[in-house]
Amino acid sequence: MAYKRLISRRHIMRLGLATLSGIGVVLGAKKIYPRQQISSFSNQEKNLRRDFTVSGKTPLRNRAASKGLIYGAAGNYPALSSDEAFKKRFAQECGILVPENELKWDTLRPTPYIFDFSKGDWLAQFAQRNNMLFRGHNLVWNQFMPEWFKEVVNRQNAEKFLVEHITTVTKHYVGQMHSWDVVNEGIDPNHGNPDGLANSPWLDFLGADYIELAFRVAAQSDPKALLVYNEGGLKYDTPEHEARRTAVLKLLEHLKSRGTPIHALGMESHILAHETRFNPKKLRTFLSDVASLGLKIMITELDVIDQKLPADPTLRDRIVAGAYQDFLSVVLDEKATIAVLTWGLSDRYTWISRFNSRSDAATVRPLPLDSDFKPKLGWNAIASSFDKAPKR
Ligand code: XIL
């Protein structure tokens, strides 16, 4: 699948398992880990000393709300409609729900003429009943397109399909959406197109202006929703992420200069726990640059991929929590950041188990709650980041 290739390329790690000094390090009070196990992970020494204590059990949605922030997560129909305990925990912790797959083209449009909103509607109702905001993901992307698309859509009818799709879907949920990811992952400098635009049938058929068109059409049928450009691969101090930051800024500037109704940048934020090339200053500057265009920022798909971490779950949780804290302290420092959504809530239901599984087959632990819906150190890290965040 194209996406899988994209992920593995994007997420290629250059992990130098360097120091083999064999000196042990104390973790918590009890356990000694050989130094080589942790030597290559970001902030390892700091992580081991870090205090992730938080006061009380106040859910993340309330901690965020008290700072004028929104916290929530992606949830999918199969999990939420079948698991009562999960449903309950989800509603406790989350102030916003985004359907993980249910509003993508391939789920919504089994044939060129039918829109199937049943799963999306179920999730919308679940959000409403539990006093959660609801957000849409996504209207335009080059992936998770239905099989029929290639056969049916061409240069002549592409605009009609794009406009009809956006109009039908946004009108269906009008008044219910906090925000819409109007265009998803429209930039990929690796594809070699002008302005770093990602390969896409929309680019082929309609040219670069498909992005502006999408925002204008969405604004027409849902003038109240926050319209978001959502992108991944923006956070590291690597040539690839630098190129993407530059291209995204250029795109946002262009859209703003043309008066396009765009209101926020969505930063996906699938963090690699083993990645050391995290430069808070560079990320902070990027966030200021986005904010200075008059745009809000939403952290839309946060999780911490523990694929390459050592096996021990206690150590893994500690490194994952450190990564959450490092990232959130930078993004929440920017007052234009209005929301944080994790891509899932519990390790029981995470795409990482399929897309970034571990070679030792151990359960992946990328999310705030474990498989039994108990808070992990990552939950504490997110909670304390909200507690420390400046008020909006
Ligand atoms: C992922 C879902 O989590 C998976 O369940 C699905 O199989 C593939 O898509 N960027 C995005 C999301 O914008 O839509 C992707 O979601 C994860 C990466």
From TrEMBL:
Keywords: Carbohydrate metabolism, Glycosidase, Hydrolase, Polysaccharide degradation, Signal, Xylan degradation. Residues 74-385 form the GH10 domain. The lineage of its organism: Bacteria, Bacillati, Cyanobacteriota, Cyanophyceae, Nostocales. The keyword Nuclease does not apply. The active site is at residue 301. Its EC number is 3.2.1.8. One of its GO terms (biological process) is xylan catabolic process. Gene3D superfamilies: Glycosidases. GO terms for molecular function: endo-1,4-beta-xylanase activity. Pfam families: Glyco_hydro_10. This is Beta-xylanase. InterPro entries: GH (IPR017853), GH10 (IPR044846), GH10_AS (IPR031158), GH10_dom (IPR001000). It comes from the Bacteria. It catalyses: Endohydrolysis of (1->4)-beta-D-xylosidic linkages in xylans. Belongs to the glycosyl hydrolase 10 (cellulase F) family. SMART domains: Glyco_10 (SM00633).
